[in-house]
Structure formats: structure tokens, C-alpha cells
């Protein structure tokens, strides 16, 4: 599957036009910047990010005196590549593990974002990186959520800590706390806490996530978001950052994202790194997010 089809195609066309030109005048550069701007806007990239992006590429293009350059189109492509990497967050940002295990990773986000699936994916990924993860079912909002995490845990071959059935509704803060004690006793070194999501941002959801966070003191609070919702992803991320505080973003469903607006906006607007990307329903369709690799894929 191709990510960001539209953007990739548009930029390819822009660069093709440049290559046939040879030398580039200032007017050529202006025209190119207009086309790049339209391409980014059509990809649903945040307007402020688009402006900044275009201004940065243009400044470098003018500075490089492309009318005298030997390979002007190659240079423009390089500037675009550099700037894409920059808005995508620069360097990949690895998990910060706690000095004293267990490292707690809390997952927050809306219902359907892909948190439960991500818990399994992250569990497998951690195990492959020589950790011993424990998944924690602290989503007690939906009747089936605990069960779903248990199924994902089984598929992933990662243990799940869940409240005992028949104990009434249960308190997610209490479950999360007991999970940490359990992890310490049983020597799990990473605890992944799955929290409840709602269809929209609401006060109760935020408070619950904030309470869980205060109780378990996570090393990483990851905001999990469906990249296909575009700019709504950015707005929701802001709400979670204000309400709960997030350290990084996980983009899910990148496999179905034909535009790329969320991916290309969220790190810059939020000022927080995209740490992981999820790109499929299979539990191994997952990896750390590498801004440089993503930029290369966009530029084809
Ligand atoms: P939660 O409500 O946040 O826990 O979301 P789930 O983990 O239950 O995921 C919601 C739906 O999205 C499920 O049908 C998942 O199979 C699907 N899903 C999750 N991640 C991805 C992904 O990266 N790509 C695709 N195509 N589907 C995904």
C-alpha cells in the first residue's frame, strides 16, 4: 500500500516540471512554491505548518542561488526532503525507559483509535527488543474492552493484567495501581496501560486518564490517534495534551491514510514527537516512526 498517494503524486509532478527546466529563475521558484503549497493543503496539512514549510524551502532555494546551480531541481528536492523531515519531528524518538523498572507506558485516545490493538503491537515489539511487557486492562468503560485486550494479549503472546470478573464495575485507577505492584513482584519490566476512550473528547474521560496517570506515574504517556481523521487528530491531540499531558504520539491506520494531513501536522503543531506508526490490522504491522524514512516514502 502507498501512503499519502495524493501528495506523493503531486510532488512528483512538481519535481518533474522542475527537472525539465535546467536553470531556475526566481519566478520558477515562486511558481514551484505555489504548487508545493497547494499540494500540502490538498493533503490536509495544517495551514500554519504549510506556511512555515514553504517559507523555509523558499528561503533555502533563494539562498542557494539556483539560477547558477548545476543541479537546481535536485537541490529543491533536497530542501523539500529536509523540511519534511523537520516537520515530521527530525529524529526518531525512542521510548525513555525508567531507571528502575517497571517502565510504565500509558495509552490514551478516543475509542476506535486503535489503542487495544496497539497494546498488542507494542507488547510484541517490546518482547522482540528483549523486554518483558505486561498489558493492563484499565478500560472499564465498555463492557467488552477487558475481553478485547485479553484476546489481543493472547494473539500477541503477552500477559494481560485484568480486574477479576464479578467484582462490580471496578476502578481503573485501582486496577492500574495493582498492575504495577504485580509487575514489580513478577519482574515484568514494562507495563502498558490501556485506558478508556470515548467517541469524543469529554471531561470525565480526561479526568479518568489524568487520575490514572497521577496514580502510576508513566515514563511515557502516548496519545494514540487514527491518522485517517486528518486535522481532527491534531485538535484531539491538543485536547489530550491539555487535559492529561502527552509525551508522544502514535499514529494508527497509516495504511489507510491517502492524504497524510495528520502525520504531517501533528508533531509540529503539538510540539511532541510521533514515536510509533501502526500500519495494518496485523499485530506486526508496526514500527518506530522514522521521520527520514517517511519523507523518503513521500518523495518516492
Ligand atoms: P480502541 O478502541 O482504541 O482500543 O481501538 P481498537 O484497537 O479496538 O481498534 C479499532 C479498529 O481499528 C479495529 O478494527 C482494529 O483492527 C483497527 N485498527 C487498529 N489499528 C489499525 C491499523 O494500523 N490499520 C488498520 N487498517 N486498522 C487498524
From TrEMBL:
<feature type="binding site">
    <location>
        <begin position="109"/>
        <end position="116"/>
    </location>
    <ligand>
        <name>GTP</name>
    </ligand>
</feature>
<dbReference type="GO" id="GO:0048500">
    <property type="term" value="C:signal recognition particle"/>
</dbReference>
<keyword id="KW-0547">Nucleotide-binding</keyword>
<dbReference type="GO" id="GO:0003924">
    <property type="term" value="F:GTPase activity"/>
</dbReference>
<dbReference type="GO" id="GO:0006614">
    <property type="term" value="P:SRP-dependent cotranslational protein targeting to membrane"/>
</dbReference>
<feature type="binding site">
    <location>
        <begin position="252"/>
        <end position="255"/>
    </location>
    <ligand>
        <name>GTP</name>
    </ligand>
</feature>
<keyword id="KW-0342">GTP-binding</keyword>
<keyword id="KW-0687">Ribonucleoprotein</keyword>
<comment type="subunit">
    <text>Part of the signal recognition particle protein translocation system, which is composed of SRP and FtsY.</text>
</comment>
<keyword id="KW-0694">RNA-binding</keyword>
<comment type="similarity">
    <text>Belongs to the GTP-binding SRP family. SRP54 subfamily.</text>
</comment>
<keyword id="KW-0963">Cytoplasm</keyword>
<dbReference type="GO" id="GO:0005525">
    <property type="term" value="F:GTP binding"/>
</dbReference>
<dbReference type="GO" id="GO:0008312">
    <property type="term" value="F:7S RNA binding"/>
</dbReference>
<keyword id="KW-0733">Signal recognition particle</keyword>
<feature type="domain" description="SRP54-type proteins GTP-binding">
    <location>
        <begin position="273"/>
        <end position="286"/>
    </location>
</feature>
<feature type="binding site">
    <location>
        <begin position="194"/>
        <end position="198"/>
    </location>
    <ligand>
        <name>GTP</name>
    </ligand>
</feature>
<protein>
    <recommendedName>
        <fullName>Signal recognition particle protein</fullName>
        <ecNumber>3.6.5.4</ecNumber>
    </recommendedName>
</protein>
<keyword id="KW-0378">Hydrolase</keyword>
<comment type="function">
    <text>Involved in targeting and insertion of nascent membrane proteins into the cytoplasmic membrane. Binds to the hydrophobic signal sequence of the ribosome-nascent chain (RNC) as it emerges from the ribosomes. The SRP-RNC complex is then targeted to the cytoplasmic membrane where it interacts with the SRP receptor FtsY.</text>
</comment>
Amino acid at each position: 500500500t502507498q501512503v499519502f498517494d495524493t501528495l506523493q503524486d503531486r510532488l512528483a509532478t512538481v519535481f518533474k516540471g522542475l527537472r525539465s527546466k535546467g536553470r531556475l529563475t526566481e519566478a520558477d521558484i515562486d511558481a514551484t512554491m505555489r504548487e508545493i503549497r497547494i499540494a500540502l493543503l490538498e493533503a490536509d496539512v495544517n495551514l500554519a505548518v504549510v506556511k512555515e514549510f514553504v517559507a523555509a524551502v523558499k528561503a533555502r532555494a533563494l539562498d542557494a542561488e539556483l539560477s547558477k546551480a548545476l543541479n537546481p531541481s535536485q537541490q529543491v528536492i533536497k530542501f523539500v526532503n529536509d523540511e519534511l523531515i523537520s516537520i515530521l519531528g527530525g529524529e526518531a524518538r525512542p521510548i525513555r525507559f525508567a531507571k528502575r523498572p517497571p517502565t510504565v507506558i500509558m495509552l490514551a485516545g478516543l475509542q476506535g483509535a486503535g489503542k487495544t490493538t496497539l497494546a498488542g503491537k507494542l507488547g510484541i515489539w517490546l518482547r522482540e527488543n528483549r523486554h518483558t511487557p505486561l498489558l493492563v486492562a484499565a478500560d472499564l468503560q465498555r463492557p467488552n474492552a477487558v475481553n478485547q485486550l485479553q484476546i489481543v494479549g493472547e494473539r500477541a503472546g503477552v500477559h494481560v493484567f485484568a480486574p477479576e470478573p464479578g467484582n462490580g464495575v471496578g476502578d481503573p485507577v485501582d486496577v492500574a495501581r495493582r498492575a504495577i505492584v504485580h509487575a514489580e513482584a513478577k519482574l515484568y519490566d514494562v507495563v502498558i496501560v490501556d485506558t478508556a476512550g470515548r467517541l469524543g473528547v469529554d471531561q470525565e474521560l480526561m479526568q479518568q486518564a489524568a487520575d490514572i496517570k497521577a496514580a502510576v506515574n508513566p515514563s511515557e504517556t502516548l496519545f494514540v490517534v487514527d491518522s485517517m481523521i486528518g486535522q481532527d487528530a491534531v485538535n484531539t491531540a491538543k485536547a489530550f495534551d491539555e487535559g492529561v499531558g502527552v509525551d508522544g504520539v502514535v499514529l494508527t491506520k497509516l495504511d489507510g491514510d491517502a492524504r497524510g494531513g495528520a502525520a504531517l501536522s501533528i508533531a509540529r503543531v503539538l510540539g511532541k514527537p510521533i514515536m510509533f506508526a501502526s500500519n495494518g490490522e496485523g499485530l506486526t504491522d508496526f514500527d518506530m516512526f522514522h521521520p527520514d524514512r517517511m519523507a523518503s516514502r513521500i518523495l518516492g
